[in-house]
From TrEMBL:
Protein name: Riboflavin biosynthesis protein RibD
Top-level taxonomic group: Bacteria
Matching InterPro entries: APOBEC/CMP_deaminase_Zn-bd, CMP_dCMP_dom, Cytidine_deaminase-like, DHFR-like_dom_sf, Eubact_RibD, RibDG_C, Riboflavin_Biosynth_HTPR
Task performed by this protein: Converts 2,5-diamino-6-(ribosylamino)-4(3h)-pyrimidinone 5'-phosphate into 5-amino-6-(ribosylamino)-2,4(1h,3h)-pyrimidinedione 5'-phosphate.
Single biological process term from Gene Ontology: riboflavin biosynthetic process
Keywords: Hydrolase, Metal-binding, Multifunctional enzyme, NADP, Oxidoreductase, Riboflavin biosynthesis, Zinc
Keyword Metal-binding: yes
Residue intervals of the CMP/dCMP-type deaminase domain: 5-127
Gene3D superfamilies (alphabetical): Cytidine Deaminase, domain 2 (3.40.140.10), Dihydrofolate Reductase, subunit A (3.40.430.10)
One GO MF term: zinc ion binding
Entry's family note: In the C-terminal section; belongs to the HTP reductase family. In the N-terminal section; belongs to the cytidine and deoxycytidylate deaminase family.
Keyword tRNA-binding in record: no
Region (Disordered): 259-328
Amino acid sequence: MSVTADDEGFMAAAIRLSRQHLGRTATNPSVGCLIVRDGVVVGSAVTALGGRPHAEPQALAEAGERARGATAYVTLEPCSHHGKTPPCAEALIAYGVARVVISVTDPDLRVSGRGIAMLRQAGIEVDAGVLETEGRRSLAAYLTRQTKNRPYVTLKLAVSADGMIGREGAGQVAITGPQARVEVQALRAETDAILVGIGTAISDDPLLTVRTPGLEAQSPIRIVLDPSLALPLTSKLVQTAREVPVIVVASEEVSPLAADAEGLPPSALPDISPTEGEIGKERDLTSQADSSSPATEDVGQGATPQPISPLVGEMPGRAEGGALPTDPADINSRRAALEAAGVEIVYCNPYHPEVLLPALATRGISSLLVEGGAKTARLFLDAGLVDRIQLYQSPVVIGKGGIESPLQATDIPSGFMHMSTRMFGDDRLDEYERGL
């Protein structure tokens, strides 16, 4: 059976559904599934919060007997192996669906092609690759971690009319308006982790949480590139570290194991190990990371947008860095105080993202938002490790003492495609993406 316009319409709906749980399905991707019979949707679901149940069994349960002879539209190839849940391919077979339409084939070697083969062996017609480009965009974080062993990286910049991202010594400078800030909160809510440099953390004292009413629990893990453990104990990040996880990435030179590790390359150092509150936004004991697939499905964002005023220091743009301390007692004191406050410290060269990103992936972080400092932005751009750019352009003029943006709309790196332009009040958002 050839793919029809109706197939594309139902798949587009499944993809929209899948986006509801982005960032809230732990290591599983957020997958959408529709069960359609005689042109009518009789069952629909998105991967549940925490990652289980998967979308297919939920949609099939809703359809019940109406699933027999129906068509299932799934944004990602149904799993074919036993993990913490039975294979979704088996559920589709058991319910007697006649046809399965898939957007993206799963790159997980435990699944890739096997789910399709299992369905076909059971006599079910399978069509794959329907709206694949759109499907891959919705699954970008999962696909990047699976195929590149690192998180999908989004760089967000707000640039004034005169090309600045802040003003030296001025603390917070509000470049974008309230409507744009609401959109940024939504981006944070669907991202696993957010990263800034120590200069921004000190100068701006940001909180880096989600402030939209109803979405606060979706705040991302907060990461600070802090080679010398300089993050103040009085900072908002440290003061709230037991509520929303904070990871400080320090130089190996200040590690308590530095003497033992001396002379070893960064790759020889231990990986970041999972800790309490490790992944995503569900930080309670009901969080369900599914070992049946390193990343597979779900998170709604139905809260009514409300104007968000910037907290003090939410506008990054400071220079990061600083000399490493030389007094071991001072280093040990800082380390102990930060850990006592609930901050996790990992030792991995902060300015080598090609080492840091795979380490973050080992703890299940699939998406990372880089939102702080000109130097930090340039670090990821120069390393070629940015996958998406969100460039806000404002009519605000910074003037004398401005901090120049590391990126303008006129010098987007090669390899990026302009995906969309949207207006939020007087602010323009241009989004660029690399191919997956």
